[in-house]
Amino acid sequence: MAVSLKKGSKVSLAKAASDSGVSGALTKVVVGLGWDTNRYDGGSAFDLDAAAFMLGASGKTRKDEDFIFYGNKSGEGVTHTGDNLTGDGDGDDEQIVIDLTAIPADVEKVAFTVTIHEAEARQQNFGMVENSYIRVFDQATGTEFIRYDLVEDYSVETAVVVGELYKHGGEWKFNAIGSGFQGGLKALCANFGIDAE
Q1: What pTM was computed for the model?
Q2: Which pLDDT belongs to residue 85?
Q3: Separation between Cα atoms, residue 90 and residue 97, nearest integer Å
Q4: Residues 76 and 103 sit within 8 Å (Cβ to Cβ)
Q5: Contacts of 45 (CB under 8 A, 6+ apart)
């Protein structure tokens, strides 16, 4: 059974996987992000986008290519599987595959984010989104071993850092962050050292 995290919780990937019945060493994990729209009766579509930022010791990206999203689907050890424009249907809306053996040694964290496309123009925010979650599962077996359901009320935020994988003592761990941002993708990119112009 998956380890269920609360905001601020941290857990070892290897321990969570082992406790959930995954045997052997983890090599490839999939980070699934999902959401439903709620309390929204505007005429515009609601398009949420998942992304990953590969971060060095400074907490910033090393180069622009460390920003993995629908417009740059692959980096060193990180692959975005594609953009879901509506969020309709059950299960993960977008997924990011992490090859733990291919992440460069100078990448200390991989942060996972969700933003609302054209949020300001469409007058949308995360207060209109519900049932948001991030989950981590073993690609080989499909076994989910970490899940974090976002229950915070993001009434004005248009971007959220959902969680991160990080290296500590040579071991990969997961941190449930749930930190909201105003200013959408541009603010998020600036936070991680990317010029989003």
Answers
A1: 0.90
A2: 56
A3: 19
A4: yes
A5: 85, 86
